[in-house]
Design a protein that fits this description.
Elements (H helix, E strand, L loop, with lengths): L1 H54 L4 H9 L7 H18 L5 H28 L2 H5 L19
Helix pairs in contact: 1-2, 1-4, 2-3
Length: 152
Amino acid sequence: MTTILMIVIAVLLTFIVVWAWMMAQRLNRLHIRTDSALQALQAALDRRAALVAALHPETVLEAQAAQKIQLGYETFADRAEKERVISARIAAIGESAEPMIVDAETRLSLAHRFYNDAVADTRALRTRTLVRWLRLGGTAKLPEFFEFADYS
């Protein structure tokens, strides 16, 4: 009886350790996905700002101010404010927007969607009770959503 109980406990502990290891690996992959989506979002925002500045010289100051702000969790609010100004300028241009700006807007929309989707997946796993209790997320910060007004 004691041997069977020890085997059951060993199997149960092995199962828990394997589950925790798999969750930690999944969280690591999700954090990598979130980081690369954040870099893609940064590139899309910078590309749009550069295009708007090149095609509409009156927006150079706003575009340069936006490009100076690196996209990070602590700078989201500042960058979002600058992007709102650029979006308002693009909206003011209206139907006569160049195809390159329309393409940049489309790419930005996709990058924004991919980033927020990666954040949602990461947060969904990180906020589970057992994942929090076992601290499987390590020391990585909980990712935040990036929102800005899109007038396109």
